[in-house]
Specification:
By secondary structure, the protein is an alpha/beta fold. It has helices at 14-24, 49-57, 61-67, 107-118, 170-176, 245-252, 255-265, 273-282, 309-312, 320-337, 342-360, 367-371, 376-392, 395-402, and strands at residues 5-9, 28-33, 44-46, 74-78, 84-89, 104-106, 124-128, 132-136, 145-149, 156-158, 160-163, 184-196, 206-212, 216-222, 228-235, 287-294, 300-301, 304-306. Strand 13 and strand 14 (216-222) form a beta hairpin.
């Protein structure tokens, strides 16, 4: 294992975590990232179940995450006048979390923590502003993968290439010999995120959500810096129609066109929407993406592997970060366990991860309806249900059964591995 040479593509969450564990297994790892520097900002993401288990195995990570959490204490759905129907709060138990996570952290902050945990490792080298131009591997001969780069790195051979570059991974398309959207399963859902300097919550750490007809929901949450974080959701019925096509077309035209698309979509919604839209048009940290699931026949092919959203994006289930952390740990653990037999290690990776992937990708039928009902009756019903479950606390009993991401930490028993570094 000491001579295994690995290329990891992507330096957000899955990439640095994969590098961390592969280095502990004795590999020499190069991590490339197409952006010129580590990306900051981004939406709030949760660490749950198996992700908590992996985090606690990474020295110093849990303390670093706790120091950078969003400080969100709860979430209320509100009427147009701002009066809440009820509030869901964190359980206070990180091993049995509610819809509000004890470990909610902004994506950019978690990426920085993982980078800081790995940047000084002598077996990990980061290269920013670089991306893969082509991959060539002879699966029958079981030879190293030849990688050509786009921006200056010399062509090199790697024993293993791991794609960690997100749900729309171009590296996946090259490694599997398919189109970028071949293994993407649309769920007719997009989201946009940005921050504004004003504190719309007036000091409260309880976030607010407001829904309007047409599957439109806005949430605002606290930012430790005193600002407000905004998330805008566009959720359409899950039928055969490709409802996110207009969104994707606007995305191709750049942030200006995409902001105009979102503003038009939210026109006349009410509540704080007019004020929020004005800030969105001026936001410098605006980011939007289609929310999808990725389902590949296998998370590897030959000496090419997928970790995180690139291989098994969870969509709206709340399990994406958990899958990324667990996948990185298991991949490195299985490769190290089967020292000298990379093919066996990759088979072990799939065997261990498959039940977790399948569970985390299950979308309970009511999740899209709860997040963004399509009509006025649906909004009224959701709000009444929300009021009932928050007042009776029945959610604390049932939530552990309706989605894998809300199970207890000990539900998913990850293997114990021996590490050489």
């Amino acid at each position: 294992m000491s001579k295994l040479k690995v290329l990891v593509v992507g330096a957000s969450i899955a990439g640095p975590t994969t590098a961390y564990w592969l280095a502990k297994a004795g590999a020499k790892v190069t991590v490339i990232e197409r952006f010129p520097e580590l990306r900051s900002g981004g939406q709030g993401i949760d660490i749950r179940t198996a992700g908590v288990t992996v985090m606690r195995k990474m020295l110093g990570m849990e303390a670093a995450v706790r120091a950078k959490t969003t400080q969100l204490e709860g979430l209320s759905f509100v009427r147009e006048n701002g009066r809440p129907f009820g509030t869901i709060r964190a359980t206070g138990d990180p091993d049995q979390q509610s819809l509000v996570s004890e470990y909610e952290i902004f994506r950019g902050d978690l990426a920085q923590i993982l980078f800081d945990l790995t940047k000084d490792n002598k077996n990990i080298n980061y290269v920013f502003g670089e991306q893969v131009a082509s991959l060539q591997q002879n699966e029958k001969a079981d030879e190293p993968v030849t990688v050509e780069f786009a921006n200056g790195l010399p062509t090199s051979e790697y024993d293993l290439v791991v794609a960690c570059d997100g749900a729309t991974s171009r590296t996946r398309a090259m490694g599997l010999g398919c189109g970028v959207r071949t293994h993407i399963k649309p769920i007719n859902f997009w989201a946009a995120y940005f921050s504004l300097k004003q504190d719309l919550l007036q000091g409260s750490k309880v976030g607010q959500g407001y829904s309007a007809v047409g599957g439109r929901t806005i949430t605002i949450g606290p930012d430790p810096a005193g600002a407000t974080r905004v998330a805008l959701f566009g959720i359409h019925p899950r039928d055969d129609r490709d409802a996110t096509l207009p969104f994707r077309e606007a995305m191709k035209q750049g942030d200006g066109a995409l902001k105009q698309f979102v503003a038009q979509h939210y026109k006349g919604v009410g509540w704080k929407t007019s004020e929020i839209m004005k800030h969105m048009l001026e936001a410098e940290d605006f980011y939007a993406a289609e929310i999808v699931q990725v389902k590949t026949p296998s998370p590897y092919k030959g000496r090419f592997a997928l970790v995180g959203d690139a291989g098994y994006a969870a969509g709206p289930t709340g399990g994406g970060t958990t899958l990324a952390l667990a996948g990185a740990y298991v991949l490195a653990g299985e490769v190290g366990k089967h020292k000298g037999d990379l093919a066996a290690g990759l088979r072990g990776y799939e065997e261990v991860m498959r039940p977790l992937i399948d569970d985390m990708q299950k979308i309970p039928p009511f999740v899209p309806t709860l997040m963004a009902p399509q009509n006025a009756w649906g909004i009224w019903l959701r709000n009444m249900i929300f009021a009932f479950i928050t007042r009776t606390r029945v959610l604390e009993f049932v939530q552990k059964y309706f989605a894998g991401a809300f199970a207890s930490t000990d539900k998913y028993k990850l293997p114990h591995y021996e590490w050489v570094a």
